[in-house]
Specification:
Layout (H helix, E strand, L loop, with lengths): L13 H6 L23 E5 L5 H14 L5 E3 L9 H13 L3 E5 L25 H17 L4 E4 L2 H12 L8 E4 L8 H10 L3 E3 L6 H8 L6 E6 L13 H8 L2 E5 L15 H24 L30
Parallel strand pairs: 1-2, 1-8, 2-3, 3-4, 4-5, 5-6, 6-7, 7-8
Helix pairs in contact: 2-9, 4-5, 6-7, 7-8
């Protein structure tokens, strides 16, 4: 008879398959990440696409109801889509729960007048087109940090490097963290390491990377990964809940992001999308509960960072010049 009460970590279906003579290959210790967050934890949680104070209140209420621990809440429409009052309300609500709030910076190519993003190749993507878009991104960063935001989402290498230089020079608080968007996420070890060197404090990787890719990245960088364990449809709609334990084992330190597939996009958010946005905010938290329950059933729910943890630890950076750079 299969022992369902075993508490040691196990893989999905391990005991049932072993009883049928279909044992899985042994895990290889060399595949496991030895990197951790500075608090000693291997993983944290994030609820993405929380587009304003009302959606945030829904997420906080649902997380209390379902007992879903949250380290970070992120927004995708951008700083420029929120009023000062809305930003300060979100900062205050997150501070009360000791949750990091991350807001997206600046104009992006997909909302710009440039035609290349609308071609089949998607040329230009979400990057900041021209000096003015770069300036708008930095304007968003300064405004948001002055209102108490401590984490900024970035989708452009030039914006990231400029923000890192600004942070190094004291133009924004030294404890501001930068998170690279899933929409430009790196897909190989070298590009992941470049984002770290440019100033990233956590880096989204696409949800379609293989387990071997996780191990390859970890051999060159200890920067925190962000990963949708359920990806929105415009990022592929992948659902990787059953791999959560192995994703942590190979990818730590890692943020598990509770996205939502089979759901229309909501960026940039406005009142016309209110009901849909609130419903999806609620469901993202429920998806988080499902993932956490699955980890618990497999005995793999240990090693989470303490709530309130947000800093990434010491990371590798390119040297920051003290002389001005020309566009």
């Amino acid at each position: 008879m299969i022992d369902a009460s075993a508490t040691t970590p196990r893989r999905p279906g391990e005991q049932a398959l072993a009883a049928l003579g279909l044992d899985a290959p042994a895990l290889q210790p060399a595949d496991a990440s030895t990197a951790r967050f500075p608090d000693g934890g291997g993983w944290r949680t994030e609820v993405p696409s929380v587009e304003g104070p009302e959606a945030l209140n829904v997420v906080l209420k649902e997380s209390s109801k379902l007992d879903v621990p949250i380290h970070r809440i992120s927004q995708g429409s951008g700083v420029w889509m929120l009023t000062d009052t809305e930003i300060t309300d979100m900062v205050g609500a997150c501070a009360e729960r000791d949750i990091e709030l991350c807001l997206f910076t600046g104009p992006r190519g997909t909302w710009d007048i440039g035609a290349s993003t609308r071609t089949d190749s998607g040329g230009g993507g979400l990057r900041a087109r021209g000096h003015d878009a770069l300036a708008g991104s930095l304007e968003d960063a300064v405004r948001a940090t002055e209102l108490g935001v401590k984490c900024l989402l970035v989708a452009d290498e030039g914006v990231l490097w400029s923000l890192h230089r600004l942070r190094s020079a004291g133009g924004i608080p030294a404890d501001t963290t930068f998170k690279v968007s899933a929409l430009v996420g790196p897909v190989n070890p070298a590009s992941f390491a470049v984002f770290e060197q440019l100033g990233a404090d956590s880096i989204n990787i696409p949800s379609d990377l293989t387990l071997a890719h996780f191990t390859e990245i970890r051999r060159v960088s200890a920067a925190p990964m962000d990963l949708y364990i359920e990806a929105p449809d415009d990022l592929g709609g992948y659902v990787r809940m059953y791999e959560a334990a192995e994703l942590i084992r190979r990818g730590a330190p890692i943020y598990l992001k509770f996205g939502l597939s089979k759901s229309p996009g909501i960026y940039p958010y406005g009142a016309q999308l209110r009901e849909h946005t609130l419903n999806t905010a609620r469901e993202r938290v429920r998806r988080g509960r499902l993932a956490l329950d699955l980890l618990a059933r497999h005995g793999a729910d240990g090693g989470m960072s303490p709530l309130g943890s947000r800093l990434p630890g010491t990371l590798n950076r390119f040297s920051v010049s003290t002389s001005p750079e020309k566009d």
